[in-house]
């Protein structure tokens, strides 16, 4: 049966479930860097929507919480701050910017045999 007939019968369209290529992941990793962390949730959200694994959704939730927390930190912290509020601001900014980019580049496909052997070697 062709795809049009399957779609008319109510079947869901085929969805890509694998990990995007390295060029796509590099472009996704550039998003939080170019937006200075404001769009830090985008790479992990794209990965979660594409693959749909529990770990991807947890990472998307984490980076969304960090981005929202950073926005609240910006809104509630005075301009000339120091000490713990400043440290928290720097930590949230670094996590939202660099952490999201590194996560996007470092994520591995669960079906990749090399990633599976690396994971088992780490556990031993």
User: What multimeric state do the chains show?
Assistant: single chain
Question: Strand percentage, roughly?
Answer: under 5%
The value of Rg in angstroms is: 19 Å
Straight-line N-to-C gap: 48 Å
Structural class: mainly alpha
Question: What's the pLDDT, averaged over the residues?
Answer: 78
Number of strands: 0
Q: Regions with pLDDT < 50 over 5+ consecutive residues?
A: 118-124
Apparent shape? elongated
Compute the number of helices: 6
Helix content: 55-70%
Biggest sheet character: none
One letter per element, helices H and strands E, the order comes to HHHHHH
How is the secondary structure organized here?
Layout: H1 3-8, H2 22-34, H3 42-51, H4 54-76, H5 84-106, H6 113-123
Overview features:
124 residues, 0% strand, mainly alpha
What does this structure look like?
With 124 residues, this protein is mostly helical. Helices cover 69% and strands 0% of the residues. The chain has helices spanning 3-8, 22-34, 42-51, 54-76, 84-106, 113-123. α2 runs antiparallel to α5 (84-106). The longest helix has 23 residues, at 54-76. It is elongated, with a radius of gyration of 19 Å.
Task: Summarize, please.
With 124 residues, the chain is mainly α.
């Amino acid at each position: 049966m062709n795809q049009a007939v399957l779609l008319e019968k109510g079947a869901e369209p085929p969805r890509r479930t694998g990990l995007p290529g390295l060029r796509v992941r590099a472009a996704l990793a550039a998003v939080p860097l170019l937006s200075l962390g404001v769009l830090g949730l985008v790479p992990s959200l794209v990965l979660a929507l594409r693959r749909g694994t529990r770990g991807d959704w947890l990472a998307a939730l984490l980076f969304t919480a960090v981005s929202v927390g950073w926005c609240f930190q910006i809104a509630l912290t005075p301009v000339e701050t120091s000490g713990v509020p400043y440290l928290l601001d720097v930590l949230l900014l670094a996590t939202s910017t660099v952490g999201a980019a590194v996560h996007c580049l470092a994520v591995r496909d669960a079906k990749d045999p090399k990633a599976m052997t690396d994971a088992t070697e780490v556990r031993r």
